[in-house]
Predict the 3D structure of the following.
Amino acid sequence: MVMIPKHDLIVTIIKKGCCECIIEASKKAGAEGATIIPARGTGIHEQKKLLNIPIEPEKEVILTIIKEEKTEEVLKAIIKAGKLEKPGTGVAFVLELKEVVGVVHLVKALSQENK
């Protein structure tokens, strides 16, 4: 069995329509791809109502699995591209992944290196 290097999951939650520049920046910083999930949510900056009915703004959740050694660089690129240092633009956080499966290209590459 080939040991796959440690990975992190960068979760980015932003307003709908803002994901393309974030994904592009994360790829330039070393990410290989991302998964985009449509979502709804509310935050302290989004307490809007229409006819006294609360509006739940549409969001996009970007999931990026990244090698641990690239996490900091990719996260910085996400923060810059998404302007996440400004209030109400979104949030990003990192989760350590205990195991990752399904990254066949990494297993093949590591198998070739170990020969």
In short: DSSP finds three helices and six strands in the chain. The first helix runs from residue 19 to 28. The helical segments are 19-28, 71-82, 104-113. The two ends are 13 Å apart (CA to CA).
